[in-house]
Recover the amino acids of this structure.
């Protein structure tokens, strides 16, 4: 039991039971909760997890960075897990064996996105590498935007910056992110606020996400921001170029939704620029 688990939450009673069951091998599961109004805290305590309440003041650090710096972790290794993600038994076994002998300081873990009941193997969603397991003293999420962007108190698409060597694991997380379209719309309405803020304000110098893959996605994102017809291009990228059509109806729906997300980001960035000029 050499790995602690960090799970940031807000009203996650629908997801938390399965998530906690998948990390039952850890003796240090910490729920960092934003004063949930449902049974999140009760479910966590019943499962034996620690519950730490987080009250955000509208500035950095946000939830995960605050937790990494402030929680009294039992172990030096921390797995960062969203409440809608499950750790497979194969991944758990691999992580516990790896941290006992590795010379690395962090590990990228791949995720399987389950959308409308189907594993999305295309659309640009697989593989989906994220740095989730690392020595908590060596890693922090980048801080790209100061202040409240309307995206919530948790990091959105920020990547981990590691002081040390990064490897990859074979096991995977299972990501049950969107049980219905309404959940997708609610989340991405907030995420597009963050996207617009980053686009208008720019990315501060010195931010270098670890592991290579997140940085390559960041560069691609930066290149496409200057293109016309971005929503249409995003649909074609997901559905045609990245083979979303091979995922059947869920792939089509997801590609259409990602085009809407792109449209929201474009329109909100335009609003932000006009407000900036007006002031």
């Amino acid at each position: 039991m050499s790995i602690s688990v960090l799970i940031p939450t807000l009203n996650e009673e629908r997801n938390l039971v399965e998530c906690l069951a998948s990390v039952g091998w850890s003796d240090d599961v910490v729920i960092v909760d934003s004063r949930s109004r449902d049974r999140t805290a009760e479910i966590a305590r019943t499962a034996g997890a620690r519950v730490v309440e987080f009250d955000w003041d509208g500035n950095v650090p946000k939830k995960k960075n605050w937790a990494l710096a402030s929680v009294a972790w039992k172990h030096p290794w921390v797995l960062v897990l969203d409440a809608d993600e499950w750790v497979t038994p194969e991944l758990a076994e691999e992580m516990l064996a790896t941290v006992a002998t590795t010379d690395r300081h962090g590990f990228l873990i791949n995720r399987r996105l389950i959308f409308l009941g189907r594993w999305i193997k295309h659309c640009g969603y697989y593989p989906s590498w994220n740095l989730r397991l690392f020595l908590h003293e060596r890693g922090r999420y980048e801080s790209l935007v100061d202040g409240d962007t309307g995206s919530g108190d948790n990091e959105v698409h920020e990547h981990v910056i590691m002081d040390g060597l990064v490897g990859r694991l074979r096991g995977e997380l299972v990501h049950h992110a969107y049980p219905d379209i309404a959940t997708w719309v609610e989340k991405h309405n907030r995420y597009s606020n963050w996207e617009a803020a980053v686009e208008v304000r720019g990315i501060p110098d010195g931010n270098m996400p670890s592991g290579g893959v997140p940085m390559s996605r960041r560069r691609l994102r930066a290149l496409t921001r200057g293109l016309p017809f971005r929503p249409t291009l995003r649909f074609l990228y997901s559905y045609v170029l990245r083979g979303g059509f091979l995922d059947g109806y869920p792939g089509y729906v997801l590609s259409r939704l990602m085009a809407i997300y792109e449209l929201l980001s474009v329109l909100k960035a335009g609003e932000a620029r006009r407000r900036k000029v007006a002031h």
